[in-house]
Specification:
The chain has 274 residues and is an alpha/beta fold. Helix 1 crosses helix 4, helix 3 crosses helix 9 and helix 6 runs parallel beside helix 7. It is built from ten helices and five strands, in the order αααβαααβαβαβαβα. The protein has one domain: 3-Layer(aba) Sandwich (Rossmann fold), CATH 3.40.50.970. Helices cover 39% and strands 11% of the residues. A five-stranded parallel sheet has the order 1-2-3-5-4, with helices on both faces.
């Protein structure tokens, strides 16, 4: 219980950091960064097997495929000491940290992502390589739900199921919004949550869903998979139901804030992290 409270406090700290630095530097994509903060906190501060050395061979890998929403990841990597605080504070303004991810393993960035549909195939390839080499590290991949419209993802999903890559866990940041509108208004028929569950089960994945802002639920599901890995022979997917822009009230579930920076009056509408 205490750990869960501490992690929630950490999530609030990261959200505040993301909002302040992104606005200070004139960077959009705040809303997609906020929806996955709790997922990232659960992974980096509880679940993943990591070391102070970012290039430790046995480390778990995270491929962050929805790379336009990477500000929470930058803030966490700075908090963990993988990147310098100054580089994070100057991102978008001359720092090597860009609006989307560029691979720098020495700084904890495992893969270059940005063009959607690339991260999951890379994660599956890394997991397959680990299996061939009898490595024990696990591979995690965070994807956006709009990104699941990309055909390359479904090729990777088929490959992962075919080769029984139980060492890969996909986490879908399911906030029901993509760049321009709600998923149901773009390409999705019916209710997207049920749609994703049915598809992933049909492709042979172990499927769970949870509230993506409930730290205890995220941790419980993934840790059960890890503890049961000797008896788990298929890849897993956690569909984390989230709210885009979560934490900044003016942004929550509002399509126009995919990239737009809030005004001072909009910020005064309040937040959930202070």
């Amino acid at each position: 219980m205490m750990l869960s409270v501490q992690l929630c406090k950490k999530a609030n700290q990261i959200r505040k950091d993301v909002v302040e630095i992104a606005i200070q530097n004139g960077a959009g994509h705040i809303a997609p960064s906020l929806s996955c903060v709790d997922i990232l906190i659960a992974l980096y501060y509880r679940i993943m097997n990591l070391s102070s050395c970012s290039q430790w061979e046995e480390r778990d890998r995270l491929v962050f495929s929805k790379a336009h929403g990477c500000y929470g990841l930058y803030s966490i990597l700075a908090d963990k000491g993988y990147i310098k605080r100054q580089d994070w504070e100057n991102f978008y303004k001359g720092s090597y940290l860009a609006g989307c991810l560029e691979r720098r393993v020495e700084n904890g960035l495992e893969a270059s992502c940005g063009s959607l549909g690339h991260g999951l195939p890379m994660a599956v390839g890394i997991a397959f390589g680990a299996k061939l080499q009898n490595k024990t590290y696990r591979v995690y991949c965070i994807v956006g739900d709009g990104e699941m419209q990309e055909g390359s993802n479904w090729e990777a999903i088929q490959f992962a199921a075919k080769h029984k890559l139980s060492n890969v866990t996909v986490i879908i940041d399911h906030n029901t919004l993509q760049a321009m509108d709600f998923l149901k208004n773009v390409l999705t028929r019916g209710e997207r949550r049920n749609d994703l569950q049915r598809k992933m089960k049909a492709f042979g994945f172990e499927v769970k869903t949870c509230n993506g802002h409930n730290m205890k639920s995220i941790i419980s599901i993934i840790e059960k998979w890890i503890k049961n890995q000797k008896n788990l022979f298929v890849p897993q997917v956690l569909i984390a139901n989230t709210t885009k822009g979560y934490g900044l009230k003016c942004m929550e579930n509002v399509p126009k804030f995919h990239f737009r920076i809030p005004t001072e009056d909009e910020i005064k509408m309040g937040n959930r992290y202070e």
